[in-house]
Amino acid sequence: MKKTSLFLIVFLFAISHITRAQLGYQAGSYLYVLDETIKRLDKRVDYQDVVSYKGTPYYNVSFLLGEIYQNNKLIANNIALRYNVASDEFEVKESLTTENSKARVLTKSSDVFVKINKTIFIFALYNGSIEEGSYFQVLFEGEKYNFYKKLIKKLTPAKKAKTSITTDTPAIFTDKIIYFIVTKDGKYYEFPSNKNKKIKVFGSKKETIKKYIKENKLNLNKEEDLKKTIQYFDSLENSKD
């Protein structure tokens, strides 16, 4: 969750009418401009100094070309994007050759989603709050249910050596993934990490799901198998939460 103090120097450009002729970096009319150095120092990590930590705060270390949509309409095409999972924000710059220092941060809005290659990221509010909301990767969209993946980068701070025979330990980012099944009215149900407990999420259909898993030799701890199971669950008539 972002703290209000992190947004002291954030400036929001007014939203202007964006025509197709303005596609590209001019979509920056609805981007936050903020001092990322302050945010990164707040996390006690210099993101530019890769020697200072292990792992990566990013989904992809390099910027990739992608698209930005608002209210399901394409408003920016072939724009350089990079998902900073640790800060839960999308960095945007005009092109792949633009200096990283000129990157800006995409406004967080439930009306805006990002597509990089075939991967889609949506932003979901939490209790109506943007500050407490989060990005999710869309794995499947069905008639009744959607399947989302939440990426998390846990930061373990650096540690100074306590004795002369030990060495400093750098900060380290470790990955965690949480899966959710989401109803069309916006209710999120988190899948437990335990394979057997995942079945309980399917409620009154769990026995039917058990049979389907057994017949198809699926492992719910594997993303593709869990996706197949949710697709089947979505296809069931009169399914209930």
Task: Give an account of the 3D structure.
A hairpin with a 4-residue loop joins strand 12 and strand 13 (188-190). By secondary structure, the chain is mainly β. Strands 1, 2, 3, 4, 5, 6, 7, 8, 9, 10, 11, 12 and 13 form a 13-stranded mixed β-sheet that branches. The protein folds into two domains: 4-139, no CATH class; 194-241, no CATH class. It has helices spanning 36-42, 195-198, 206-216, 223-235; strands spanning 11-12, 31-33, 53-54, 64-70, 73-84, 89-93, 104-106, 112-116, 119-126, 129-141, 145-156, 171-183, 188-190. The longest helix has 13 residues, at 223-235.
Judged by helices, strands and strand pairing, the structural class is: mainly beta
Radius of gyration: 20 Å
Proportion in β-strands: 35-45%
H/E element string?
EEHEEEEEEEEEEEHHH
Mean residue pLDDT: 80
What's the total count of β strands? 13
Total domains: 2
Terminal Cα separation, in Å?
Answer: 28 Å
- What overall form do the CA principal axes indicate? globular
Helix content: 10-25%
- Spans where pLDDT lies below 50 across 5 or more residues: 1-38
Report the total helices. Answer: 4
